Amino acid sequence: MYKSLKDFIARLEREGELIRVSAPVSTRFEIAELTDRQAKSVGGGKALLFENTDAEFPVITNMMGSSKRMAMALGVERLEDIGSRIEALLGDALSPKASLWDKMRMLPLLADVAKWFPKNISGRGACQEVVWQGDEVDMERLPLLHSWESDGGSFVTLPMVNTIDPETGLRNVGMYRMQRFDKRSTGMHWHIHKTGARHYDAYKRLGQRMPVVVALGGDPAYTYAATAPMPDNMDEYLLAGFLRQKPVRLVKALTCDIRIPEDCDFVIEGYVDPMEEKVVEGDFGDHTGFYSLKDLYPRFHVTCITHRRDAIYPATVVGVPPQEDAYIAEATERIFLAPIRLAVQPEVSDLWMPVEGTAHNLAVVAIDKRYGGQSNKVAQSLWGAGQMMFNKYMVVASSAVNVRSFAELARLLRRADLSRSVIRSEGVLDVLDHATATCGYGGKLALDLTDVDINATVTPVEVPRTASPVGGIKLFDIRFVESCALLLLFADESRPIEVDVEAYLRENNIEGMKYVAVFDYQAMSMSASDLLWLAMANSDPRRDVKLLAGGELLLDARSKHPGVKDNPKRFPNVVMSSVETIEKVDARWQEYGVGEFIASPSRKYRKLWLSPRAEW
Predict the structure, then answer these.
(1) Which of 100, 200, 206, 581 has the least CB density, counted as fewest CB within 10 Å?
(2) pLDDT category, 615, cuts 50, 70, 90?
(3) Which residue in 522, 533, 505 sits closest to 40, CA to CA?
(4) Could you give phi then psi for residue 306, rounded to 5 degrees?
């Protein structure tokens, strides 16, 4: 695999996947705006290497922001190749062994697995060539990105956060954003469901400081492994070794016993004191496409920083999809399908998580159905499996259908019997889900389409050419009526607290719809992809989805008025660049040398802005 991050960057450049930006750029807003334009270009655009930043180090962004670059990062031609390797490995390991000879044949397999285990080495690594200790420790010397106008500050966005369970000695490597507070401290944004938070609780019970070591860069397989949904007792560096087909070489940090990859670019050492009061962290323009709002998280105290002499700072920009994280999520989807099939749900033949669902909100599952109720069983089981517990909406279809085709899914949805196909539940949601009034907990909904005849004849639906505003609804849109009997409605621009959809349908003689989705008036010109993203993000199935008297399934995808009835107390804004940043990058475009002009994606999202602040 790669000897360093610099080695991976050289490969990107050879493959025509990298643009060098030699013009001076600011880590405050400018890099994020340029990256956002690339990320939303066809196929994810290019990786960007900013050689002249307002800090001491160059910055690379979007390095895994396409299917091709993600596969390159993991050393394969196609992401499916990794899934096939895992399936073959698990198939051999789990298959019955009828004889001693069959068992003996497993020895080479065990020997191969042993080669992937991380290896501790003595001495210092390349990541410790330069050491900042004492008065030299200064987080402000690192080129942390301040990405969006309402962000609470600058953040480390691709950290590999290394912690140790004090009770078992097992290591965890997670990825938790870190807001820089000052020269020697940051936030540590680990959610209650994350392993880092569990380790924190264990240190709190013991009344001890918690050592934490953060690594950045190195072989991109390390960065991917830190994001992967590994079980608590599995070492992420073992996964990295499997991906790169060679062990990760680990050196001891300078101020504690935690080990990190010797070839990474930066190491930030320190501690979290569980006895210390938590601090306000945020806002942050998150991967959901909305700001995650201020909340209390532990403070990370920095005691030492080391780096390579030729260090390059890796960063990612998250916001309205698609962004780089969509391709990281795609890799996870392909890589972990085999374990799901073999260990959790053997009937699952495919699992697709469309980018509009921002990793957790929407999943489409294909199953080999053999008996009644199987879809319900699959949905409930997946909602209890690892990070799939965060899923909010699920579609379950037959494996005879191409579930990665929106056209085929639309044909199924058009022919579904909604009186039988809706599966409801409640459970754990992502803490970042802003639509639920109970943080980290809300509704779940699945549609069982496994018995739908995709070729069944359907009755054409006729919609009037015009309709009168009624019940707080101003406009309708029929672009999806023919394909899946979905009617889009747009509320009055005054943003009424309640709308009466049934009155609107009745008064305008609109019949025969299966699905109705209501959006804010300001979303009326959005693309189908943007509307799907808004619908998944802005709704809680237990509050915002219901069957109307006419049999239509209604989804209220509007932004919610905070604190009203069952609405959340706070409701965030969509992530976007400021007008000033957009105009600055427009004016400097030729200086950057990044090719043909790309318009700012933020321009179309400005109309969704709820107020001058990130909450209203």
Answers:
(1) 100
(2) very low
(3) 533
(4) -125, 160
SS3 label, residue 214:
strand
Beta bridge partners of 185: 182, 301
Q: Cα separation of 295 and 282, whole Å? A: 7
- Mean pLDDT of all residues belonging to the chain: 92
Contact call for residues 317 and 36 (beta carbons, < 8 A) = yes
Interatomic CA distance for residues 220 and 314, integer angstroms: 10
Euclidean distance between the first and the last CA atom of the chain, given in angstroms as a whole number = 48
Kindly report, residue by residue over 337-388, the tens digit of the pLDDT.
Answer: 767 766 678 899 999 999 999 989 999 999 999 999 999 999 999 998 878 9
CA torsion sign for 275, 279, 284, 288 is positive
The Cα–Cα gap between 25 and 28 comes to 9
What angle is formed at CA 143 by the lines to CA 213 and CA 603, rounded to 5 degrees?
A: 120
What was the pLDDT predicted at 107? 43
400 Cβ contact partners less than 8 Å away, ≥ 6 residues apart: none
Contact predicate 369/436, CB 8 Å: no
The single residue of 265, 283, 286, 540 carrying the catalytic annotation is: 286
Q: How confident is the model at residue 103 (pLDDT cuts 50, 70, 90)?
A: very low
**Cα separation of 262 and 241, whole Å?**
14
Mean pLDDT, range 501-529, rounded to an integer? 96
Q: Per the omega criterion (within 30 degrees of 0), is the bond before 322 cis?
A: yes
Whether 93 and 342 have beta carbons less than 8 Å apart is answered as: no
| Angle between helical axes of 579-592 and 30-39 (0-180°, round to 10) | 80
Give the per-residue pLDDT at 553: 97
